[in-house]
Amino acid sequence: MATPIRLVMLGTGDFAVPTFARLCDSGLNVVALITQPDRPQGRKQELIPAPIKMEAIARRIPVFQPERVNADEGLTILKELQPDLLVTAAYGQILSAEVLSLPRFGGVNLHGSILPAYRGAAPVAWAIRNGDPESGVTVIRMSPKVDAGGMIAFARTAIGPDETAGELESRLAVIGAPLVVESIEAIVSGTARILPQERSKVTKAPKLSKADGVIDWSHPARRIHDLVRALQPWPTASTYWHPSGAGRAPTRVIIHRTRPVSGSASPGRAIDSPGNLLIGTGEEVLQVLEIQAVGSKRMLTPDFLRGHPVMPGDRFSNVAE
Known about the structure:
The chain is α+β, with helices and mostly antiparallel strands and 321 residues long. 25% of the residues lie in helices and 26% in strands. The chain has two domains: 6-201, Rossmann fold (3-Layer(aba) Sandwich); 210-317, Methionyl-tRNA Fmet Formyltransferase, Chain A, domain 2 (Roll).
């Protein structure tokens, strides 16, 4: 690039790591990483730095972690860094108009969908949950509104029939990284073609919660399968297993991997199939391939069944009673 410019990357999630690495490897002048503060994780609630922070440390790039980038602390950091352009991906905060006014070239964002579809925090999960055959990434000029800026570049990719949100997001992150570099070069050289988003085609992709993962067995097997993979690796899909026999309490289980198969049975009823776990749905049957009792570890279904025998006719439902 003929004119050296000062770039500041803002990112927190794993989706941002390939873009950050590509910026650095492309010889661009990345002067700092801004990422969210380390958060307690796991049962021990340890403060674990995000992978992108460790990447920056390994590359000896300064790291700043303001609680709110739009507040005084964040503004002070950015003013001192004097960026010419901001780059964001999976940062977790919306940048204010004041922040975006600081760099002379504004900011660009890598988003995990073909906009204007799936604006919001969980575009990959919603695409899979809705059974979409393809997804993609879009590089946009940033605006104070969520994912509403003009589009600079995009790329499409097919979604595998068993691909999880985590797997697809990892692929999209790699696909999008070179597009960000190309978009920066186009902006700085004045050759960028920025297209507005069609408002009539906007759809939303809000963050998903554990409540969204409760399985309704009256739905078709394919729809449940899409839900299971959309919520991997988090917040996961779950159901209550109601064992046969007096005095056996319902057990909440997490369903990690499934496969729709032909057949029919009452929705939520286990089918006799030794060594397998087949459950009836509103259409076809769902084979559970990996499962986890809450408080235990994730297991392949045959291993789970050895310690948790599911009997034909046992019921699975979305309630514990």
